Each structure stands twice: as C-alpha cells, then as structure tokens.
Amino acid sequence: MVEPEQRLLMLIENDPAQSRLIGALAGREGWRVLSVDDSEKAIATLGTRQGMQLSAIILDQGVPGDRACELIAELKERRPALPIVMLTSSTSPQLAVEAMRAGVTDYLVRPVSPDRLMQALRNSTTREAPGDELIPLSEKMTSQLDFDTMVGTAPAFRDALAKAAKAARGHGNVLIEGESGTGKEMLVRAMHAASPRAKTSFRMINIAGVSANSLESQLFGHEKGAFAGAFDQQVGAFQQCDGGTLVLDEIDRLSLEVQDRLVSVLESGSVRPLGAQYGFKVDVRVIAASNLPLADLVAAGHFRGELLEYLARTYIELPPLRERDRDIGALARYFLHQIGQQPGLRPLGITGDALRLLGAFEWPGNVRQLQAVLFRAAVFCDGDALTADDFPQLREIIGETEQPVRNGPIRESAGVQLYTGDGNLRPLEDIEADVIRLAIGHYRGRMTEVARRLGIGRSTLYRKLSDLGIDNAA
To answer: Name one GO cellular component term (predicted).
Structure first.
C-alpha cells in the first residue's frame, strides 16, 4: 500500500503560476505533484510507470475547454478508480451535471480557497463520510435572498431565524456562530436583503481564504510604498463598505494582531490605511461568522474579549443538522425542487426508505452536505424518485441492515414535538410556546399575521409571549 506521504497527484494545468501554487499546497499535505499542460500529455502519462502510481488528478477545465467532459471520460475509462477534481470558472449547472456523469469526483468553482481545494482532494481520496461535493455550485443555486429560503421547523432553528429577522431591521453588529455548513452564509445574505442597507455596498471576506500578509491590506487598505511590494494604493474593505455591510467569515481564524486593529476601528468608527498619516470615518455594519464558539477562544486566550463584545451586539447560534433531524424530510424535498430546476436535471421525489437513511446519518457537514449529497444522487438517478439505493456511500457507512433513526422516525408534521423522550406528553405550555415560535419564524416576525393565523388577538399574543418568555421578532 502506498504511504500517504508518497501519494502522487497529476495536475493538468497550463498556467505556470497556478501550477506552482497548487503544487505547493499539495506538497505541504504530503503529495508529490506531476504537472502536465495539455490533454494529450495527460492521457499519455496514464500509461507510464509514474502514471500507474497516481492517486488522484486535479484538472483545470480551461486546459481542455469545451472538451473537458471528453477528457474526463477518457481518463476514467483508462483508470476507473482514479478520483478527479475539476477546477472551473464556470457556474453552469449543465457543465456540472455533464462533468459528474463523465466521472468527475468533485467540482470546484473559482474563486476557491486553498483550504477548500485541499479538503476536496482529501475527500476524493478517502472512503469516509460523503464530503461537501459541489458546494460552490450548490451555493449559487438559490436565487432568492430572504428568510423563506431557510427551511426548518426545529425550535432552536426558528428562534435563530426570528432573532435574525429582528436584527436585520437594525444597524448593530451581529455575530453568528454554528458549525460549518449550518447555513451561516445564507442567513447573512437574508439579513442583508431584509435590512435598511439592502441597496448599499456588501462585501464578504473569508478570513481563512486570505493570506495573513494581505489580510490587513484587504480590510484596512494601504498607501503606495507602505511596505515592500506596495506599488499602488489599495482601498480597504471598510472604506469600500462605507454605509453598507461587511461580512467577516471564519473570524475565529483572525490573528490577535489584526483583532487589535479591528477593535480600534469598531471603537473609533474610523479606519486608517497602512502607511497613512490620517484616517477615514466610516459607517459600516459588521456581521461576523464563526465555526467555533468565540467565548471558548476568549477563555483560551486566542480571541480578544473586547472584540467579542463589539461583534456580539446581537448573538445568533445556528444548530447543527443532527439536532434538527425532523427537518431532513422538508429540507430534502426543498433541495430536490431547487435541483430539479437546473439545466440537465428534472424534478424528483424521494421515498420513505431514502428519508430514513438520510435521517440515520449524523451529517458532519450539516445542511450544506445534505444539499451536495442530494445533488450528486439526483444527477445519477434514472427513476422518478430517489431511493436508498441512490445513496450507496450512506448505505455503506450506516450498514445494510435497517438502523433506528436517532430521534425516532422523521415526522412530516409541522415540527412541534408532542412527546418527551420517555413517551409521555409534553406540558401544554411547552407545546404552545413551540407553536408560537414556529408561527413567528414562518411569518418572519409579522406579529399581526401571526396573531391572525393563530386565531387570537394581537394583545393576547404579546401577553403569551411575555408569560412564556419568548423573544419575539417584532
């Protein structure tokens, strides 16, 4: 068996700068890289001694162009078990479908962060849980940017949406925490679309995808000659977003030095570019997102407590999918409806056995992973509905025998739990509180509509909110 440090990667890339970059990234993870710059050399390499040692291929779609799918099919015909990761600048779902059917293992739309590229390579060469395949493409499928695109009835999830809907109408900073794939980016975009700043500038920076050397310049800007290599002036994100919204994703990855500068900007309301003798007053709403609990990082000395205070004027936590497994049925049908609208695909149903299989999985990649797995299954489905057989990786992980779903069967109800874990009815007060939370989330905090749909007066609704201790979105 080839040891991990001896794995050989063939990179099909005709841009020398990209070849060096990807080669360096792969080298840090123990890969040896064999670069070729055209399709003919790639095919010829498969028959060589080195070609027989290959463990994976990264293909830049720009090399074969319109013949990318033909090249993928030929590579897979010669080496069926060899995983292929394709890089492309195209967001066409049609190309994604054709590439997958030709045999591509993963499909990444530029711009793609180094971490995501390496994660795709790791996922394609392991037999572990289904990875986040086609994430960049599936993220672009949703055209609507409002809270109606956030599907789910779990109380913790609806509470998060109600809080986000309320915060969207203000101007204060917001911190959203939740595991990777829980929907933080979609929630951010929904909040911006519903905010008074909806028509102003909006920029999202992924901290993990920017090198430490260039991050300060991206955020705060720099003057010409501020440091070696600063040949031109650069306007930073804070100035670009004056009057608008700046999103800092994966802010848990921010260095302490940059955290200190960010505290200064948030405290003073002004930003000074690197090398400048003066600053600029700015009005920027910051929405920060973190995969890790920042309070824990503060306790460990890895995050500034003062910065956390400035960011968490409103704090929202999105629960992982494993804590809202009764939403899986609704999410699956919603995603399949979206997927069915894409060129080259068609609307599909989903059977009960498939839903039970999806419900038995832990979903470490959360909602984003569920969407990607459904996309892949839909591409290869020949029938009118997805069955358990359309998810061979899940069956292999969970086992061929029927497994009990973690929290009982997936319910197609409104999502209000009637029974406790020991089978007894929950108190009426708790059930009533869940119904009200569900209504507030469903009608996006429009309290008059909530009261009308529940069949009670608005004053009665507010009294119940107070009695039940519910934070409403009005």
So the answer is: cytoplasm
Number of domains comprising the chain: 4
CB atoms closer than 10 angstroms to residue 114: 15
Domain boundary residue, one of 317, 341, 368: 317
CATH number at residue 464: 1.10.10.60
Domain assignment present for residue 138? The answer is: no
What DSSP designation does 149 have? Answer: G
Question: Are 311 and 328 contained in the same domain?
Answer: no
Q: Cβ(223)–Cβ(273) under 8 Å?
A: yes
Residue 185 sits in the same domain as residue 299: yes
Range of the domain at 447: 416-474
Q: What percent of the chain has pLDDT over 90?
A: 41
CA–CA gap between residue 386 and residue 337 (Å, rounded) = 12
Q: What pLDDT, on the 0 to 100 scale, is given for residue 404?
A: 47
Burial class (CB in 10 A: 0-12, 13-18, 19+), 461: buried
Model confidence pLDDT, tens digit, residues 183-211? 999 899 999 999 999 999 999 998 987 87
**Single pTM value for the model:** 0.69
Structure tokens at 213: 């050397």
| Kind and range of the H or E run holding 289 | strand 285-290
Tell me if 455 is assigned to some domain.
yes
Digit-coded pLDDT (tens) for 378-415: 988 888 899 999 998 888 887 754 444 454 444 443 45
Contact 324, 156 (CB under 8 A): yes
